[in-house]
Design goal:
The chain has 153 residues and is an all-alpha fold. It contains five helices and no strands.
Length: 153
């Protein structure tokens, strides 16, 4: 398969519009990252969440399969999981809460970024939040303006 690339011919007003659209998409992404980072930091300083996460890790529930657990272990796992999930919801670290946040931010730039594009950025940031919460991610990354090459729909 071959790809042919053509130079896009734009008049100055279209260039300005595209430039502003990319700039505002980058702004929205970085605002969501800042908001999620602040929420993650607050969550990681919550004593109840830290105790539940520590107990969950010490019990090794993340490495064991559900079939190999006894009834009391299943009950304890469910208890700890519900505590952690409730804390994540309380601190606004769910997909819907990030979408609500981005909908408010998107209204500032509604002439350049539509709601679908803003929610796609919220989804991308939420994937990073999931990596930090559930996998081996350490922190969320900001985007530089010049590294932003597409606006997701």
């Amino acid at each position: 398969m071959y790809t042919v690339r053509f130079q896009l011919e734009l008049n100055p007003s279209e260039k300005r519009f595209l430039s502003k659209s990319f700039f505002y998409a980058n702004q929205i992404h970085n605002q969501i990252v800042r908001h999620a980072t602040n929420r993650l930091n607050a969550l990681f300083h919550d004593k109840e969440y830290l105790e539940a996460r520590k107990a969950y890790g010490e019990a090794g529930f993340s490495k064991k399969e559900a079939d190999g657990l006894s009834a009391s272990e299943k009950k304890k796992k469910k208890e700890l999981s519900s505590i952690m999930n409730n804390k994540q919801k309380e601190y606004g670290l769910t997909k819907t809460s990030l979408c609500k946040f981005v909908s408010k931010e998107q209204k500032k730039y509604k002439n350049y970024i539509n709601s679908h594009q803003a929610q796609a950025e919220a989804d991308a940031v939420y994937e990073g939040v999931e990596k930090v919460l559930f996998k081996d991610g350490h922190y969320l990354h900001y985007h530089r303006y010049n590294s932003f090459d597409c606006i997701k729909q």
